[in-house]
Automatic annotation (TrEMBL):
<dbReference type="GO" id="GO:0015934">
    <property type="term" value="C:large ribosomal subunit"/>
</dbReference>
<dbReference type="GO" id="GO:0019843">
    <property type="term" value="F:rRNA binding"/>
</dbReference>
<comment type="subunit">
    <text>Part of the 50S ribosomal subunit.</text>
</comment>
<dbReference type="InterPro" id="IPR023674">
    <property type="entry name" value="Ribosomal_uL1-like"/>
</dbReference>
<keyword id="KW-0820">tRNA-binding</keyword>
<protein>
    <recommendedName>
        <fullName>Large ribosomal subunit protein uL1</fullName>
    </recommendedName>
</protein>
<dbReference type="InterPro" id="IPR002143">
    <property type="entry name" value="Ribosomal_uL1"/>
</dbReference>
<keyword id="KW-0678">Repressor</keyword>
<keyword id="KW-0810">Translation regulation</keyword>
<dbReference type="GO" id="GO:0006412">
    <property type="term" value="P:translation"/>
</dbReference>
<dbReference type="InterPro" id="IPR023673">
    <property type="entry name" value="Ribosomal_uL1_CS"/>
</dbReference>
<dbReference type="InterPro" id="IPR016095">
    <property type="entry name" value="Ribosomal_uL1_3-a/b-sand"/>
</dbReference>
<keyword id="KW-0699">rRNA-binding</keyword>
<dbReference type="GO" id="GO:0006417">
    <property type="term" value="P:regulation of translation"/>
</dbReference>
<comment type="function">
    <text>Binds directly to 23S rRNA. The L1 stalk is quite mobile in the ribosome, and is involved in E site tRNA release.</text>
</comment>
<keyword id="KW-0687">Ribonucleoprotein</keyword>
<keyword id="KW-0694">RNA-binding</keyword>
Amino acid sequence: MKTLSKRLRVAAAAIEPRPYAPLEAVALVKTNATAKFDETLEAHVRLGIDPKYTDQQLRTTVALPKGTGRNIRIAVITRGEKVAEAKAAGAHLVGDEELVDTIAGGAMDFDLLIATPDMMPKVAKLGRVLGPRGLMPNPKTGTVTTDLAGAIAEFKAGKLEFRADRSGIVHVQFGKASFTPEDLLENLKAVQETVDRNKPSGAKGRYWKSLYITSTMGPSVEVDVSALQDLKFGE
């Protein structure tokens, strides 16, 4: 078993084993993000769902109002005049069948993949490569579209795709340690509202089981979900 570093032991010792008020939790995680780089903050949501059933799966997108703080690398699979549109919109990689073959060979130098509908029959063969990484384009998440410029702009501005894993846990980034606690909280609130709004039809019983937030190199802190749900922004 890996031994915790002295820095992490000290940080973890200051955290009480209880749910914290949302702003207090965010501020605590931010304080403990003491690495020499700008750490990413993540939310880990345990839900009362069993994703092996189709009516208990969760896959959607969230638009973080304060952005992600990341320079996201977007790849686009398209053809014809759409290639120029994708490049002009700032896509990191753009191509047609040749890019499909490159990805099939294991080269995935991107964080998000968008495809136009006419290319999906070609993209379909990448399911085994992209599926486990959560990178398969999907119309429901806005990653299969003819509006490439709009989609690229949205994802670069702070739109993120997320899904529940096999254990019913959602892992989603919601900002950087350099953000203010208030901005991080507003992003976290957007994640909570999105999870609630997209509750699977087959979910039964207690939907939210727990919510923990953490930074890349820091200890996790439990958040009071009810208090987060009660928060109101923009009023």
